[in-house]
């Protein structure tokens, strides 16, 4: 079907190319071969008389005209998804939609991983596209280029006014190698029945230990709390990945503040001992955020319900957290 000389069958390809800025990834996103996507790009270039994707070294950038298409094309795709899913009814067994979810590697591993098998069984053709947390996610939700954002409520200023639902809570603990000589004889969290455990690691000791810090485009909650309290740690290693931090501690004098659910998930493999945090960071409340325009979309509502049910039945109790850690 064509409108004004434009083949509407090219709209999904245009959307994928604008979002991915790469022919191969756009083809993978649409489950077509690279030659087919290259042919679609060639047709789009002829129609618009514009290159759309401009080579910059080994990558591609959007042309100025392509940048102007980003929001209207994404909005059109979102409206089309909503309209067609409402009209035909929603059946997870046959749904072929791709959901784009912004999440940290921590939430992906601790929350998403145990859910994937259930989603795959119930909706085998639904795809999840997980992307990193970035600035400007509120705008991305509003224009439809993101379906969900999973982020601590404490860091969600950019998402103010958007619908949200709390999923699970966590807290930060201090993680170190079990044989870290600087902490020899100090009881860990699992020795908390010993009265000296709660006050064993002082702030003074922590500031003298080599520390693995998390960095990124958005400042982590630990960094915010450290600045608020005027605390400066001895940072020897930085990483942008929450999951990497605890894995770097084995056989080193390094320590790090890690979310407890993540720390317990990898403690055996990473040879960790966990201690109460000497710094008051507060409870982390991970929540999912979405655009109001998606609230009544049947497919979107189905996914949100699965997330909520998963959080309620698996993650909101200590028993559930340990079951996830054990892979059950």
Automatic annotation (TrEMBL):
Chain ranges of the HTH lysR-type domain: 6-63
Keywords: DNA-binding, Transcription, Transcription regulation
Cited InterPro entries: LysR-type_TF (IPR050389), LysR_HTH_N (IPR000847), LysR_subst-bd (IPR005119), WH-like_DNA-bd_sf (IPR036388), WH_DNA-bd_sf (IPR036390), YidZ_PBP2 (IPR037402)
UniProt-recorded Gene Ontology molecular function terms: DNA binding; DNA-binding transcription factor activity
Gene3D superfamilies according to UniProt: Periplasmic binding protein-like II (3.40.190.10), Winged helix-like DNA-binding domain superfamily/Winged helix DNA-binding domain (1.10.10.10)
Family of the protein in this entry: Belongs to the LysR transcriptional regulatory family.
Protein name: LysR family transcriptional regulator
Natural source organism: Mycolicibacterium hodleri
């Amino acid at each position: 079907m064509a409108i004004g000389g434009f083949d509407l069958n090219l709209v999904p390809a245009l959307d994928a190319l604008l979002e991915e800025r790469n022919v191969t990834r756009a083809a993978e996103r649409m489950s077509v071969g690279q030659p087919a996507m290259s042919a679609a790009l060639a047709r789009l270039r002829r129609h618009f008389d514009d290159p759309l994707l401009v080579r910059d070294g080994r990558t591609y950038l959007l042309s100025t005209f392509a940048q102007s298409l980003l929001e209207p094309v994404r909005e059109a795709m979102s409206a089309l998804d909503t309209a067609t899913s409402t009209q035909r009814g929603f059946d997870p067994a046959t749904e072929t939609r791709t959901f784009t979810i912004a999440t940290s590697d921590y939430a992906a591993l601790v929350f998403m991983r145990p859910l994937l098998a259930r989603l795959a069984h119930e909706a085998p053709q639904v795809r999840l596209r997980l992307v990193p947390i970035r600035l400007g996610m509120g705008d991305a939700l509003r224009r439809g280029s993101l379906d969900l954002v999973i982020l601590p409520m404490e860091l969600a200023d950019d998402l103010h006014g958007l619908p949200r639902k709390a999923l699970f809570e966590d807290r930060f603990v201090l993680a170190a190698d079990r044989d870290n000589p600087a902490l020899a004889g100090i009881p860990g969290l699992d020795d908390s029945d010993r009265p000296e455990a709660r006050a064993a690691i002082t702030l003074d000791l922590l500031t003298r230990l080599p520390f693995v810090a998390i960095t990124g485009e958005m400042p982590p909650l630990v960094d915010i709390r450290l600045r608020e309290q005027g605390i400066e740690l001895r940072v020897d290693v930085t990483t942008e990945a929450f999951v990497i931090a605890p894995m770097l501690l084995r056989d080193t004098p390094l320590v790090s503040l890690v979310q407890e659910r993540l720390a317990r998930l990898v403690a055996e493999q990473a040879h960790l001992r966990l201690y109460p945090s000497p710094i008051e960071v507060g409870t982390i409340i991970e929540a999912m955020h979405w655009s109001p325009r998606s609230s009544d979309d049947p497919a979107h509502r189905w996914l949100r319900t699965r997330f909520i049910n998963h959080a309620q039945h698996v993650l909101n109790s200590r028993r559930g957290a340990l079951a996830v850690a054990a892979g059950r």
